[in-house]
Amino acid sequence: MKAVYFERCGGPDALVHGERPDPVAGPGEALVRVRACGINRLDLFVRAGLPGLEPEMPHILGNDIAGEIVAVGPGVTHMKAGDRTLVNPTLSCGVCSACANGDDNLCRSYDVIGRRRNGGYAELVAVPAVNCLPYPENLSWEQAAAVPLVFVTAWHMLVTRAQVKPGEDVLVIGAGSGVGSAAVQIARLHGARVIATAGGAAKLARARALGAHEVIDHATEDIAQRARALTGRKGVEVVVEHVGGRVFEAGVAALARNGRLVTCGATSGNKVSLDLNLLFGRHLTLLGSWMGRRSDLNDALRHVASGALKPVVDSVRPLAEARAAHERIEARQHFGKLVLVP
Ligand SMILES: [Zn+2]
Predict the structure, then answer these.
(1) What's the mean per-residue pLDDT of the chain?
(2) According to the model, what pLDDT value does residue 80 have?
(3) How far is the CA of 94 from the centre of ligand 1 (A)?
(4) How many angstroms separate the alpha carbon of residue 65 from the centre of ligand 1?
(5) Does residue 295 contact residue 181 with C-beta atoms inside 8 Å?
(6) pLDDT confidence of residue 130
(7) Looking at the domain covering 151-288, what would its CATH class be?
(8) Centroid of ligand 1 to alpha carbon of 107 (angstroms)
(9) In the chain, which residues fall in CATH 3.90.180.10?
(10) Which pLDDT band holds residue 120 (cuts at 50, 70, 90)?
């Protein structure tokens, strides 16, 4: 099969488009013909090399897979060859107490397809059959492949962790990112007033079109100051953050009394300073959030199926252009998801 893979970690130029052996569906697995595969920022981190992570080598990235089942391994009964599927990217043991409690994202063996085991930057991929979800028939392949990882992450952040409520002010950092574009919609779906940040007039207009009530240009404006001005000095009840560094600090400064900041990333810096007087004096809660539960994805997918939540596709490229797609994300030129089609 044709695939994009790498044999050593590095920059976008480590990605090679070439031939790899066809994978085989083992017991409990399904072999999927990939019709579209979404790109996530996680792919860029795995490609660059994460401390302690030893990916299967040569490594094929790709968490978000939409495609058709070609064959199923022994023991698989709920899917068959010819079925269309959207693949849940999350992996967990299924038997530990965290999994039994439905907190599968807290499973000690929790992982994501394409992180250690090979993923969907390929014509074919073998995945655990339990990950093969019914296909959301209202979506194209490219749209479907833009859904799973960012919607499970954003749903877990806003609904499960921050417990967003109708009427609250929610500040979404980086509406142009995959998680940000999902968070704007999920906050709006829950009746919140959404203030979104983005860089530049074009991205701000897209954030408004997605459902943001107010926008802040994070390239030229002071996020905390603007968020306070837009809320009559009160501040926001919830901040959705994934950038880190100074942006995290601005997020904390933007919080109202009893506010919650939820973070799932630190792309621009993982060390921050925190004023403890603010933390206790304003009764704040800081929440870490790692991916999400299967149930979070199921909940989000119900609203994707109804059309209330829509995947945001920046652009679709042939698999062979994976390198250029990574470069576009690193240059922060995108709004929404980049999708590869074999
Ligand atoms: Zn488990």
Answers:
(1) 97
(2) 95
(3) 5
(4) 22
(5) no
(6) 96
(7) alpha beta
(8) 4
(9) 2-146+312-341, 151-288
(10) very high
